[in-house]
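A note from the maintainers: we've had questions about how concatenated examples are separated. There is no special marker in the raw files; a new sequence line simply starts the next protein. For clarity in this README we add a label.
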Amino acid sequence: MLLQYHYNGVCSRKSIKLYCDFYSSDLIVASPVRLIAKISEAKTFKEKDVDYLSSIEVLIIDHADVIAMQNWSHENTVVEQLNHIPSKQHGTDVMRIRPWYLDGYAKFYRQSIILGYYSNPDINALFNRHCSNYQGKVKLVCEYKGVLPKVILQVRQIYEQFDVDSIADVDDARFDYFVKKVFPKIKDSVQGGIMLFISSYFEFVRIRNFLKSQEASFCLLGEYTQPSDISRSRLWFFEGRRKIMLYTERAHFYYRYKIRGIQNLIIYSLPERKEFYPEIVNMLDGSHNMSCTVLFSRFDQFRLERIVGTAPSKRMVTSEKGVFIFC
C-alpha cells in the first residue's frame, strides 16, 4: 500500500495492482507522517479505524536515520498501534484466524527489521521495547574509524567531558556545564564569530532563551527560521553585527548552509550524522585564531564513536581525564 500521498494499497496475487483498498492489500508502503494522520482520524471519527495495522506480519523501517531527523515519536506511535485486536470484523472468516492473533500474541510472531546508516538511543529504545519476536533479536554492530581525517584544517579540536550520573540528566548537565564553564568565556571575550552548533531543537530553544536572558548579541539559524531571517542572520554574523550564531543539525541536514565568519566553533552537542562534523569544522576555513570546542558525556558514545572512532571513544568515556585534544 502506497501511503505517502495516497490512501490505497498494493495487491500481489499473480500480478501487482497498485492502490488497492487497505483490507485487500498485501503490502503497505507508508511514511510515518501519513500513518499518524490516519491514526488521528481513527481516534476522531468513529467510522474510521486502522485495523489494517493489526495483521502486520513483517515490519520494515527503512532509512531509520533519516526518519530520526524528522520526528521519531511518530515512529513509536505507529509501532505501538501494530498487532492490536481489530475493532471490527471487516468480512474476515474468523475460523481462518490463527489462535495467537485472537489471544493477543501477534506481536511476538511479527518480524521487525530496522535499517539505517547508524543507531542512536531512540532507535535502540524502539528495538528493545517493541521488537518482541519470540525467537529473539539480532543487532549488527559497526566498528567506526572516525571522520577526523576529513577535517582539512589545522585546528585544535578540544573535547571537554562533563560529568553526569544518568541519561535522564544529560540535558540538564550539559546546559549547566555550558552556563558555568563555557558561557563566561564567551561573555568576557571581545572576539565575535562564535557559532554554537546544537543537535536538538529543544536544546536550541533552551540556549536561545538563556542568551536572551543574558542580553547577549546573537542570531538564529534553525529548521523553523524563516528564509528572510536566515539571510539576515547570516549577513549580520559575517559582518560582526551579531557575536553569536545558533545553528541546528536539522537546519544543516535540510539546507547544508555554508556559514562565513566563524572564528570560534562550539559544538554544544555532537551531530548524529558523522559527515556533518567535518563539514561544520571545515567552515572555520579563512578564519584567524580559529578554535573548536566540543562538549560530550559518557552517554554520547554512539555519536562520539562515529566521529573519533570506536576504540578512541571507549577510552575517552572511561578515562578520568576531562579534556582531549585532536589536531
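[label: protein 2]
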Amino acid sequence: MPSIVDRPAQRYVAERATLGIEEFPRIADRIPPLIGTLAGHGIAPAAAPFFRYRVLHPGMRFTVEAGVPLDAGFTPAAPAFLDEVPAGKYVLETYVGAPDGLAAATEAVLAWGAAEGLTWDRTDLAGSEEWGGRLEVLRTNPLEVPDPAQWVTDLLFRLAG
C-alpha cells in the first residue's frame, strides 16, 4: 500500500528526451555515462539514479529525464544539465519486478490516490500532463542483480500544495 512521505529538495545532473515507450532505452542508457562523468570528477552519486517524468504526451510519449542525484558542486557539459527535484510531500510505492510491470504499478498508485482524494502536483495542458514531481527511483543496479524480477523501483508522485 502506498504511503505519503516528506522529501527534501534534491539537486541532480540529467539528460532529457521526448520519446515513445519503445524508445525508452535511449534515455535509460544515459545513466551509466552520467555516473561515469561524475566518477571522472571524483564525485559519487548522492543517491540512486532515477527517471523524472516531466510531461506525459498523448500517444504514450514522454518528456523524461535520466537523473543522478548530487551533493557536490558540478558543472556538466551539454547535453547534460543541473536541476532540482522539489521538496514536498510525495506518495511512495515500492515496486519489485521487471520494468514491464511499472505501468500497471503506476496506474494502481494513481487509482489509490484518486480514491484517497489526493491532488497531484500536475497541470493538464491540451491533452498532456505536466508533472512537478513524478519519479521512478532505480534502487537496484542491474549489473549486480541481473534478474529483472528482483529489481526494486520506488515510484514517487508529488502532491499539490
